[in-house]
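TICKET: design request
STATUS: open
ATTACHED STRUCTURE:
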């Protein structure tokens, strides 16, 4: 067994006890979210996996699929200070990070005071992140990576935990600034949000168009969430699962495919080691979310698409032939079964 936490002393009995407590808290959180989010079980699961893994998520879907509602709900249920930024082309980095202002004291002395921007939140929704300029995108993505901002040479640490759930509209691309591949890689997962099924949409109509709507309450505190995130990194991972992660990620790299593999001509470039790290964390979180004490190979295959799809690109010939990244990933997974 391998835990990916070298140098950390772990008592198996303590891990089991902490895992059982975490599972109970997660069940309550999922039940609370389900009171107001209908028919998006996979989206809710993957978003929770992202947060439990300590990462950031990119939600991709057309308007009106409750992406904003989901983030607001998770902020309340998980006891996090949640804020939202609507990205627009004229948004400046200081509008996100904050700025220094000159203040004059009663004695006439002057000094700069830092006014925090909305990034100083525990859960930040970056709505339509691809509508902001590259400079503004980079300001947010840098804070996502480093967990602090630097204004006028002074470092300001962001609150912990700190998570960004960004959204993108896949339909309207005019007037947008697509995120560069290196910046997309900073998102732990890309979560595709699809239309609800018939019964879920029927329930949406009945539950959200009356005189009253269901409200949620906090069932987990920020401190408890951080303890669960620490626990995720201590969950043991079997060698078979580690080998499955390595095989899957390396099978998506054209220069590491076996000779004669037809996929090598379809993939322009594949995922780097950060994808392997993301899978290592997310399979643990998914196991805990499902009430299991260790991840399985099934977890690896289930999370392959959301973890890999924004870390790969197809060749021009593949795109012209109608191939898609999710389709290629499913092909790779089938070859691993």
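STATUS: resolved
RESOLUTION: sequence designed for all positions
ATTACHED SEQUENCE:
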């Amino acid at each position: 067994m391998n835990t990916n936490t070298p140098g950390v002393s772990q008592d198996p009995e303590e891990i089991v006890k902490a895992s059982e407590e975490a599972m109970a808290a997660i069940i309550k959180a999922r039940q609370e979210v389900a009171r107001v989010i209908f028919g998006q079980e996979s989206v809710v699961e993957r978003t929770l996996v992202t947060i439990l893994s300590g990462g950031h998520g990119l939600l991709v879907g057309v308007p009106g699929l409750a992406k904003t509602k989901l983030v607001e709900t998770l902020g309340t249920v998980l006891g996090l200070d949640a804020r939202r930024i609507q990205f627009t082309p004229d948004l400046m980095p200081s509008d996100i990070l904050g700025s220094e202002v000159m203040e004059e004291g009663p004695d006439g002395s002057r000094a700069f005071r830092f006014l925090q921007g909305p990034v100083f939140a525990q859960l930040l929704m970056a709505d339509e992140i691809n509508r902001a300029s590259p400079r503004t995108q980079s300001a947010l993505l840098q804070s996502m990576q480093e967990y602090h901002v630097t204004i006028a040479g002074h470092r300001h640490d962001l609150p912990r935990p700190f998570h960004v759930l960004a959204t993108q509209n896949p339909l309207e691309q005019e007037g947008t600034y697509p995120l560069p591949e290196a910046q997309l890689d900073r998102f732990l997962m890309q979560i595709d949000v699809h239309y609800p099924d018939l019964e879920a949409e029927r329930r949406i109509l009945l539950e959200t168009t009356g005189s009253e709507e269901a409200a949620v309450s906090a069932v987990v505190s920020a401190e408890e969430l951080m303890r669960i995130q620490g626990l995720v990194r201590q969950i043991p991972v079997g060698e078979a699962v580690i080998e499955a992660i390595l095989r899957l990620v390396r099978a998506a790299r054209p220069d590491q495919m076996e000779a004669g593999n037809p996929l090598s001509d379809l993939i322009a470039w594949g995922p780097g080691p950060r994808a392997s790290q993301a899978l290592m964390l997310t399979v643990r979180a998914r196991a805990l979310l499902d009430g299991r004490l260790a991840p399985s190979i099934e977890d690896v295959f289930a999370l392959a698409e959301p973890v890999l799809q924004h870390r790969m690109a197809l060749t021009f010939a593949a795109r012209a032939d109608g191939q898609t990244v999710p389709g290629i990933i499913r092909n790779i997974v089938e070859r691993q079964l």
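CLOSING REMARK: The CA atoms of residues 106 and 151 lie 26 Å apart. The chain has a mean pLDDT of 88.
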